[in-house]
Amino acid sequence: MFRVRRNDGEILVISNKHVDELRSMPEEHVNGMDAHVKNVCGRYTTGDILLDGDLPSRVIQQKLTPSLAATAPLMKDELDYALDVEFPDCRDKWVSVSIYELLLRVVARVSGRVLVGPEICRQEEWLYTAIHFTENSYAIIMTLRILPSYLHALVGPLLPAYWRVRANLATAKRIIGPVVRERRAKEAAGEYKKEEDVLQWMMDMGVGREAQPDKLAHRQLMLSLAGIHTTTMSISHAIYDLCAHPQYFDPLRDELSYVIENHGGWRRPIIPKFRKLDSFLRESQRMNPPALIAFNRVARKELKLSDNVTIPAGTHFCMASDAILHDPEILPAGESDDPKVFDPFRWVRLRDESPENAHRYQFATTDSNSLHFGHGKFACPGRFFASQQIKLILGHLLLRYDFKYPDGKGRPLNMGSDENVFPDPAARVLMRRRC
Length: 435
Ligand code: HEM
Description:
Keywords: Heme, Iron, Metal-binding, Monooxygenase, Oxidoreductase. It is found in: Membrane. The relative contact order is 0.17. The protein has a 5-stranded mixed β-sheet. It has a 3-stranded antiparallel β-sheet with strand order 4-12-9. Strand 6 (303-304) and strand 7 form a beta hairpin. It has one domain: CATH 1.10.630.10. By secondary structure, it is α+β, with helices and mostly antiparallel strands. It is globular and about 55 Å long. The chain has helices at 19-23, 32-39, 42-45, 55-64, 68-86, 99-115, 124-144, 152-155, 160-188, 198-205, 213-244, 249-262, 275-287, 321-324, 346-353, 383-400, and strands spanning 2-6, 9-13, 30-31, 95-97, 294-299, 303-304, 310-311, 316-319, 401-404, 415-417, 420-422, 429-433. Protoporphyrin IX containing FE (HEM) binds next to helix 2, helix 4, helix 11, strand 5 and helix 16.
């Protein structure tokens, strides 16, 4: 157990042997949202809405995740459109691109189809707002974190990004509010076949204030913050890893082609059958995690853990998710004993080893050692959707394009800011159309 000092406060890093007793404690004792709101400087980024109920998580768990197979064809249609409008013409020639920047807009479009629905997901103003809300929020977070907390109230409102976030919120309300009201009016008139999207499910499941159009718009921005850049980073890392280890292009493409041909094509529920791709993504995330720490929680009460460890009330604590998956005692054996070696099919080999492993070790599976999506009550509810979206997009890219680094270039070093890890967004790769 040790403390990490950030300028805005201390975080206690505790052993993951405590995960199982902590993950099921009531949220009045151990709270994930308190830690998120602190991490995203909620008062200044408007992220404090996360403390105002858990409507998005309920909707994702109860409606989106069970409907993943049904949403896949909608996402596929939006992806085909997005690739046509966003990707460059690279037939018969190699073209240099910032794959991160291209993917950001593709992910905003494809996830938008399922989150905000067909009326909104192609509106340029929405795409701009959904993407820039996160960038403006991080500009606030990273500036304020340089300062001690007692200066935040003074400095926060002086930051241009503070006002840009509020402008993004006003735009989201202006775009989403009329759609909510129109859907409700049509429903009242009995002439509306409900859309199958998160906006509609939030309209249906929201209770009291939660269902107000302005609140729904704000929640949609928070979902953009939770899902667009994170998903883009995972796909970018995977492409950077593939270009650094090009011997894995063929096995992944063979699996994709085999499954598509033998299981009815992209419109059928084939994505869970991409087992090598799943394993590759999990290993890529192990090597390039979203953050060095995870399972951020705040103790709302003093916690007495089973081995007499006491965590005082008010403590922000977390676990060293990156170090855990680089610990040779913990990481399951792979082709090498060295945890620094990238072994993308180690997880699918483990899954094939025994029937009880069949559903373990997947990209979206969390356990006490695999914490990059959190674990337990506050674990990322969107991870199954993210997994589907990443495989859909990456699968299409691998079959449609070749990728490589420019001559003399290799994998760009990851970038970091406090605990967060990012792929270099400006790094360039070359791409060429294959078919
Ligand atoms: C690779 C992509 C993603 C990563 C790495 C990621 C990671 C995380 C992590 C680490 C947490 C905190 C878990 C905890 O405290 O135990 C979280 C929370 C959450 N995630 Fe994700 N996530 C991803 C994609 C998504 C997507 C696509 C959605 C939405 C559809 C989503 C929705 C949420 C929500 C609603 C929360 C709860 C906190 C909040 O509202 O911000 N995530 N995610």
